[in-house]
UniProtKB/TrEMBL annotation:
Keywords linked to the UniProt accession: NAD, Oxidoreductase, Tricarboxylic acid cycle
Residues of the Lactate/malate dehydrogenase C-terminal domain: 167-330
A Pfam short name: Ldh_1_C
UniProt protein name: Malate dehydrogenase
Catalytic residues as annotated in Swiss-Prot or TrEMBL: H197
GO cellular component, one term: mitochondrion
């Protein structure tokens, strides 16, 4: 049983079946290291494959001493078969690679550096594990997920059901922030968050929670939308949200693995190729996604919104469309 029970108090089952190889690209970074540790504790992972431009073999050696059954191997570009070997036979690939935000930076400020990194890693995934579930953490997610999609399309292996932008942290933050206001257990606060994964594109739907009155709490809404800024400021140039993001990434990976093993009714928020706003030229959108053995099983509609949320959604869609177009334009250029 996993000691912390970090995923909604669900203990991992030691008897889990359909165990699989999971790869982390960017494993020696601020998100990659704690993410890899959390995945090592998951008995559904039989093999943990860690890759980075440097440092991954050391991270792998360290984590391999944790007394769970999975094997851990680290790869660098110049050793051990490199990226190709790291991705071979992977069922789930998590991509936290990239540079972190610093004070004053937006996620879009990261675009020029991280877009190239994600593009190159997506090319490798398309070549070496085209059927894997790809979980993109690298910011700006609103743009990096479309980049991955375009790369997979160019390679002729795009499967929209297998590509996910990890927006779980927005839901995690919303439940925690509400619990602080209400004095409740965050595990009991089920807050739906939709849209994208950056600033005003993050839309919490408090009207659908146990506390619909919070929809008019502008400070709370802003905190959910810009919660990452709190961490960037507090770390004072030393990084961004790494530990909480690692937890959110591990939770998303756990949900994908549970669904792949045949568990029914697994629902997680995720930024995916979605029909919800395609008529407005928005191909990707985050909402509740029901997962299955083949990845995306069903994309849930948003449901009724109040007047405040309608305005938030309108602002979201405008920015989100620009973010997506930016990612697509990058790959075509």
């Amino acid at each position: 049983m996993f000691a912390a029970g970090f995923i909604q108090r669900r203990a991992f089952s030691a008897s889990a079946r359909n165990l699989s190889k999971v790869a982390v690209l960017g494993a020696s970074g601020g998100i990659g290291q704690p993410l890899s540790l959390l995945l090592k504790l998951n008995p559904k992972v039989t093999e943990l494959s860690l890759y980075d431009i440097r440092g991954a073999p050391g991270v792998a050696a360290d984590i391999s001493h944790v007394n769970t059954k999975s094997t851990v191997r680290g790869y660098e570009p110049s050793s051990g078969g490199g990226l190709a070997e790291a991705l071979k036979d992977a069922k789930v690939v998590l991509i936290p690679a990239g540079v972190p935000r610093k004070p004053g930076m937006t996620r879009d400020d990261l675009f020029n550096t991280n877009a190239s990194i994600v593009r190159d890693l997506a090319k490798a995934c398309a070549e070496h594990c085209p059927d894997a579930n790809i979980l993109v953490i690298s910011n700006p997610v609103n743009s990096t997920v479309p980049i991955c999609a375009e790369v997979f399309k160019a390679k002729g292996v795009y499967n929209p059901k297998r590509l996910f932008g990890v927006t779980t942290l927005d839901v995690v933050r919303a439940s925690r922030f509400v619990s602080e206001i209400k004095g409740s257990d965050p595990a009991d606060e089920n807050i739906t968050v939709v849209g994208g994964h950056s600033g005003v594109t993050i839309v919490p739907l408090f009207s659908q929670s146990n506390h619909p009155e919070l929809s008019s709490n502008a400070d709370l809404v802003k905190r959910v939308q810009f919660g990452g800024d709190e961490v960037v400021k507090a770390k004072d140039g030393a990084g961004s949200a790494t530990l909480s993001m690692a937890m959110a990434g591990a939770r998303m990976a756990e949900s994908v693995l549970r669904a792949a093993a045949g568990e029914k009714g697994v629902v997680e928020p995720s930024f995916v190729d979605s029909p919800l706003y395609k008529d407005q030229g928005i191909d990707f959108f985050s909402s509740k996604v029901e997962l299955g053995p083949n990845g995306v099983e069903k994309i849930h509609p948003l449901g009724p919104l109040d007047a405040v949320e309608e305005k938030l959604l309108e602002a979201c869609l405008g920015d989100l469309k620009k973010n997506i177009e930016k990612g697509v334009a990058f790959t075509k250029a």
